[in-house]
Design goal:
The complex is a heterotrimer of chains A (411), B (459) and C (405). With 411 residues, chain A is α+β, with helices and mostly antiparallel strands. Chain A is built from 15 helices and six strands. Chain A has helices spanning 9-13, 27-39, 56-60, 67-93, 106-133, 169-178, 199-224, 276-280, 299-312, 314-317, 326-334, 348-352, 355-364, 378-395, 407-410, and strands at residues 17-24, 45-48, 156-161, 183-188, 282-283, 286-287. Chain B has one domain (28-450): Formate dehydrogenase/DMSO reductase domain (Formate dehydrogenase/DMSO reductase fold, Up-down Bundle), CATH 1.20.1630.10. Residues 1-16 of chain B have low confidence and may be disordered. The two termini of chain C are 13 Å apart. Classes of the chains: A alpha+beta (411), B mainly alpha (459), C mainly alpha (405). Chains B and C meet through helix 7, helix 8 and helix 9 of B and helix 7, helix 9, helix 10 and helix 11 of C.
């Protein structure tokens, strides 16, 4: 009746009983048998089938697994973890602005959070299921029963284990016979195959483990030591370039500088600025008394001048040009002794100063005033000068300068 | 009672001595046969040549730079990203068949879900290669992962390209796990039937000691349901995240809210088309006509009809809203698509995706294998063109006319695209050769013989 | 594989149908008259009335249309689990004709040029606005009415066709009818998709005609599906309370309804998030102004309620299969989700009133009760002499014996 390997004859007959195995041809027979065994009060038993048999769970009294709860917890961890990852890296550890979006952009963080939830849940589902099922289990006494190989094909099995408290060799056998199995057999504990790892495998694992530590060792050594040789840079990536950078020395040139000064007399394209009047405020070497022809005396120019004056000049010179701008007031209040007050633009000497000279002052600066030439294009500077003239005139204005229509409101 | 061949074939009487043994024999022998059919050798010769060409062209791009492709300004995302989106989309059908049809209790899925899932894995592998090789400095893709480093350099999580990394990565992982888990019982079958020790060892290793215990089946079933329930929102999210690559921009033709469901519908359409293209020859050459029946082919054609119509719906939404919005950039983009320099591609796309599947309204067409196969091929062509139209034409004609440019593919572009098909089919053919291509345990589980008659019920 | 069970139950409403018809009909008429009264005497050119009426109208129509869609879907996919509840859905789907009539209070003001709700209906406003002028070839009273006639015409024809065939099936049990209904549902579904989308564009999206979103039709669809499954669950629970269908509809069916409710809570959230996040990300003023309005003042609370109440809470609430199999708990969530659908539609429509404080008005309640009651009366009217279950459908027995996974 026992079906065992031919090689280990003596050891076989001394092997203890593992359980009784009944084989069935249909799922219905299996379910009926399962109910009998369940009702008889056995606990250490199981049924085996090539596919999950409908109704076997209640027939065996299998309780619902806690797997869904484990997966729920894993999912919540994934969700929280995803949010935490994104918050910590982009908002806390290294904050950086992208397209003006908030540092912690929750709408943008949702997709990854969602994926992490699914990932953690799914990986946990598989591995928790395997762990709860006790898999991998590469060895089982049933593997010695040749007939049992049909469990993955088309046969159904039921085994009651000998360690069950209700197990009795003859009574249990009788019970199982009543369920009309195709075959009823004994399963013996495996005393035939070795349960030791093959030598070769052990040696291989040892060698691989040791070899795996080598790279880490090398890294540790490299991090803990210094070295004069140039490091190995596998992919150059334009990381170290042989060009000469600004402020570097180069003994090729007599002055040892890598940076070369501009060749005298060269002018960049578009920088010729030949028109003296427009660019330098000079006509035939003397300060210009009139505005250049590119700057017409129109309301548009005046308005432009007013706007530009408001931007560049009012902080120091004040809105009306009296030299009482915010900066001036503050500097006076600070009284540090280094301050030269901005000029009151409505003083007489400035009223008679040629417009070209005024233009030049704006361009080149004077005393504490910086050069505004680099900031303000020439035409705008002329517009500012034009507005200054308007301001100066308004300080010594009479009622006749006011348009007739508006005189009434002033009286 | 309707004839068994018209409806679900599993409503017929059991076949032979045990139906289960027949299922096992028919499928396991494909993996066990010492010599696969000649067609397999020819197919893998062609596909592996293409796969070699694929790797060769990638190597060339690494050596020479991105200029080896046709990528230029303004069309900086040329074919590589089109191919990426195309392949990711193809993968979606496998997950739909495995997960969503499972949740909807569609038993007919058991004949095709295994190789559809395999198709997903291989499609995602092909897809994932493209972002890795198109970044210009292909030695730095690890920057996409949040690996702690001394520069405090983290990925930019607000970017949809980074979301892609997580979405496609999760999708690949979960699909792989789901595919593997589904195979465990069948690997057990192959292990138990294996005669040669090396096969027994390898299948046994992979089957991790599965013996069909009902207590284990209980948890396994629960895990299967959970994975199906998780994979469903996952598959919707993955192609939505891929669509976000385009939709979060401000580019007309890219920035539109319907992209997420539109891309998902298109992905399922293209994916099912690929399943059809694989299933029709596979059932022929591997002798699986009684398992993958005309009923299955019909159902796949119906799903193609539905998803193709959804894609057509989305086209309509885009065109109509482009008019309704009266944003002249948006309107121009669509006018240009339909009548401009890429009109030929646009009409190919609309024909293949919206019009061709309409033939599946007719039962005669659904049950005509050559027509269904051609429909599948045209659908794949159409879906590739759809990605091309969306990505390349919108870039080619954007806001400033001085920036406009016409994209021209280079021979390396063609080789890379063809080569990706080579990789896909090589992997698929290897799968057919060595792994169980139909889910034997699931097929048995839905067979009428599996029904348990208890004395309380009427049969 | 197919388990079956035979029908053994009280499947007719009989006098109860007439009673419900009279009571609900009475309530409906009274509340509508009160609504009209309050609306016309408010002195705001019907602004509050039109807004409240539109809200109530779309809420009830989303359920009615949803019923029609649901019936067509069950036919199309040859679903077996739902046969036992199909007739109930058909009764409510037949209300589309009634809903066409109930749209008049919205249509007449448009024809008369009243722009209180739809500003494009007012010619003066359109003339002064370049965008509206450009859209006026679509957004004008004439075409609007024509499209309305098309939508409701199609819906009425489809609903009547499916209902009539279904009732015929009760008499003859002819198998061919199953095929006929399935064949009609194919193109039916196709045109449902288009008509529902453009209905949503016309009636809801054009309330703020400068804004647009290609996903809007899908958004409306998501809420519609969630509502229809919730409503079906509640109707069945009420019927069972009244002693009908007690043995036919069991927790397996409620479980499936619950699954769809859950699934579409998630689907709604996915669509809502897609729309929001894409507009947030690109930050284009034409698109974001609609959202800015909904984050301004009191509206931000409504938005928060939608995020947590329409998604987070019901997600966890409906996750467990225990909840979906319990009538009490599922009933609670069904009512909850319908409330959320109403809040969602409120959030869509009401900001066009132009206030940062929530424009609550008694009209919101009276219009809703009025329209809903009339629809209940409509369904009860249809149910007077009709089986509550398609008795001769050959798939019924499988539906009765159906077991969930």
């Amino acid at each position: 009746m026992s079906d065992t390997k031919k090689e280990a004859g003596k050891a076989v007959t001394e092997a203890p009983l593992h359980g009784l195995l009944a084989e069935y041809e249909t799922p219905t027979a299996l379910v009926e048998a399962a109910k009998r065994v369940r009702d008889a009060g056995f606990k250490k038993w199981d049924t085996y089938s090539p596919f999950p048999v409908h109704g076997i769970d209640p027939a065996m009294g299998i309780k619902p697994t806690i797997l869904p709860w484990i997966v729920l917890v894993a999912g919540l961890i994934g969700c929280g973890g995803g949010l935490l990852l994104q918050w910590w890296t982009n908002t806390y550890d290294y904050k950086w602005l992208i397209s003006g979006k908030p540092f912690f952009s929750i709408p943008a963080n949702i997709p990854i959070t969602f994926e992490m939830t699914i990932l953690f849940s799914a990986v946990t589902t598989l591995f928790a299921m395997l762990i709860l099922n006790g898999l991998p289990r590469h060895h089982h006494p049933l593997d010695l029963k040749k007939r049992f190989a049909r469990v993955t094909d088309d046969r159904f099995f039921l085994m009651v284990e000998a360690v069950d408290p209700k197990f009795d060799e003859s009574d249990t056998r009788e019970l199982l016979e009543e369920t009309k199995p195709v075959v009823l057999d004994e399963v013996l504990e495996d005393r035939v195959t070795s349960d030791k790892l093959p030598r070769g495998l052990v040696y291989a694992l040892v060698v691989i483990s040791v070899a795996a530590l080598v790279p880490f060792g090398l890294i540790a050594r490299a991090r803990a030591s210094t070295m004069r040789k140039t490091r190995i840079h596998i992919i150059p990536d334009m990381d170290s370039q042989t060009e000469y950078k600004a402020q570097r020395m180069l003994d090729f040139f007599p002055d040892d500088r890598a940076m070369r000064p501009q060749i005298p007399g060269t002018i960049a394209v578009g920088q010729l600025d030949a028109d003296d009047h427009l660019y330098r405020g000079k006509v035939n070497g003397a300060w210009a008394l009139t505005f250049p022809k590119q700057v017409p005396a129109t309301e548009a120019t005046m308005k432009r001048g007013q706007q530009r004056f408001g931007i560049y000049c009012t902080p120091c010179h004040g809105v009306a040009g009296n030299g009482d701008g915010m900066v001036a007031k503050r500097a006076t209040a600070l009284a540090q002794g280094t301050w030269v007050p901005p000029a009151n633009l409505n003083q007489d000497y400035l009223r008679v100063m040629p417009v070209g000279q005024l233009f030049n002052t704006i361009t080149r600066g004077i005393r504490n005033m910086p050069a505004y030439g680099p900031q303000i294009p020439p035409k705008d500077r002329w517009a500012i000068v034009m507005y200054m003239r308007a301001l100066q005139r308004s300080h010594k204005a009479t009622i006749n300068d006011v348009p007739a229509a508006e005189r009434g409101s002033l009286k | 009672m309707a004839a068994a061949t018209d409806l679900n074939p599993y409503q017929g009487p059991p076949v032979g001595e045990t139906a289960f043994a027949k299922v096992t024999n028919n499928i396991a022998r494909i993996a066990e046969t010492p010599r696969p059919p000649r067609a397999w050798y020819i197919a893998i010769a062609i596909s592996s040549t293409l796969a070699l060409a694929f790797f060769g062209s990638i190597g060339w791009v690494f050596w020479d730079g991105i200029g080896a492709w046709g990528n230029m300004i303004p069309v900086a995302w040329g074919w590589p990203i089109v191919n990426f989106v195309f392949w990711v989309g193809i993968g979606h059908a496998g997950t739909l068949i495995s997960a969503i049809l499972f949740l909807f209790r569609q038993d007919w899925r058991t004949a095709i879900n295994r190789f559809a899932e395999a198709m997903t894995i291989f499609a995602v592998i092909c897809a994932g290669i493209f972002p890795g090789i198109h970044i210009g400095r292909p030695w730095l893709p690890y920057w996409m992962f949040p690996i702690p480093n001394q520069m405090q350099m983290w990925p930019q999580f607000r970017s949809p390209l980074e979301w892609d990394v997580f979405a496609v990565g999760t999708y690949f992982t979960v699909s792989l796990l789901f595919w593997y888990m589904g195979m465990i019982p069948d690997l057990g079958t192959l292990r138990d039937r294996a005669v040669k020790p090396i096969r027994r060892f390898l299948y046994g290793l992979l089957a991790i000691g599965w013996r069909g215990s009902s207590r284990q089946w209980h948890r396994y079933e629960r895990a299967y349901l959970l994975l199906a329930a998780l994979a469903t929102p996952l598959v919707l999210s993955v192609h939505s995240v891929v669509s976000f690559d385009m939709a979060t921009s401000q580019l007309p033709g890219w920035h539109t809210t319907v992209f997420p469901p539109y891309f998902v519908a298109g992905a399922i359409y293209g994916g099912f088309a690929m399943v059809v293209v694989l299933a029709v020859p596979a059932r022929q050459f591997f002798g699986l006509k009684h398992l993958i029946t005309m009923w299955h082919v019909e159902n796949m054609a119906k799903i193609m009809l539905v998803t193709g119509s959804l894609v057509g719906y989305s086209y309509l939404m885009e065109f109509w809203t482009a008019w309704y919005s009266h944003d002249h950039f948006e309107s121009f983009t669509f006018y240009n698509r339909a009548f401009g320099t890429y009109a030929w591609a646009c009409w190919t796309m609309i024909t293949c995706n919206a019009f061709v599947p309409q033939m599946f309204w007719f039962k005669k067409v659904r049950r005509n294998l050559p027509l269904v196969f051609i429909g599948g091929v045209l659908a794949n062509v159409g879906m590739w063109f759809e990605r091309f139209i969306i990505i390349d034409t919108s870039l080619s004609r954007d806001f400033l006319p001085t920036s406009w440019g016409y994209f021209l593919p280079t021979p390396i572009d063609y080789l890379t695209l063809a080569g990706s098909f080579g990789l896909f089919f090589t992997l698929f053919l290897l799968f057919c050769r060595y792994l169980p291509i139909v889910a034997m345990a699931e097929v048995k589980g839905v067979h009428p013989s599996a029904h348990v008659h208890t004395h309380e019920e009427r049969s | 594989m197919a388990q079956t069970k035979s029908l053994d139950d009280n499947i007719r409403l009989g006098d109860d149908a007439t009673k419900v018809f009279k009571i609900a009909g009475g309530i409906g008429v009274v509340f509508l008259l009160v609504s009209f009264g309050l609306g016309f005497t408010a002195g705001d050119k019907l602004k509050q009335f039109l807004h409240s009426y539109l809200l109530a109208y779309i809420f009830v129509l989303s359920i009615t249309l949803g019923m029609l869609w649901w019936v067509a879907l069950q036919h199309l996919v040859n679903a077996k689990w739902s046969i036992v509840i199909r007739r109930v859905a058909e009764l409510f789907a037949s209300n589309v004709a009634l809903m066409a009539l109930l749209a008049l209070p919205l249509l007449v003001p448009i024809v008369l040029g009243n722009g209180s709700l739809y500003e494009w209906a007012n010619p003066t406003v359109v003339a002064a606005d370049a965008a509206l002028k450009a859209k006026s070839s679509y957004l004008n009273a004439g075409l609007f009415i024509a499209r309305f006639v098309f939508y409701f015409g199609f819906w009425t024809i489809l609903a009547r066709y499916l209902f009539k065939r279904s009732l015929e099936q009760d008499k003859t049990g002819d198998r061919k009818l199953v095929g006929k209904m399935a064949v009609a549902s194919g193109p039916g579904m196709f045109w449902l998709a288009l008509t529902i989308t453009f209905f949503a564009f016309d009636f809801i999206m054009s309330v703020q005609p400068h804004w647009y979103s290609t996903i809007f039709g899908v958004y409306f669809f998501a809420g519609m599906v969630m509502s229809v499954h919730s409503t079906l669950a509640l109707i069945l629970m009420w019927l069972q309370k009244k002693g009908r269908l007690v043995r036919s509809v069991n927790r397996e069916h409620y479980h499936d309804l619950g699954k769809m409710m859950f699934g579409f809570v998630v689907f709604w959230a996915y669509i809502a998030f897609s729309q929001f996040m894409l507009y947030w990300y690109a930050n284009i003023p034409e698109e974001t102004q609609w959202y800015h309005q909904r984050f301004d003042g009191d509206w931000k609370w409504v938005s928060a309620v939608l995020l947590f109440g329409h998604f987070v809470i019901p997600f966890f609430g409906l996750l467990s299969r225990h909840v979906k199999r319990s009538k009490k708990l599922l009933g609670f969530w069904a009512v909850y989700l319908l409330a959320m659908q109403w809040i969602d539609l409120y959030w869509l429509v009401m900001p066009s009133m132009g206030t940062t404080k929530l424009p609550f008005s008694i009209l919101d309640v009276t219009c809703l009760v009025g329209i809903a009651a009339l629809c209940i009366a409509g369904a009860a009217f249809q149910a007077r002499n009709v089986n509550l279950v398609p008795t001769k459908d050959h798939r019924l027995e499988r539906s009765l014996a159906f077991e969930n996974i």
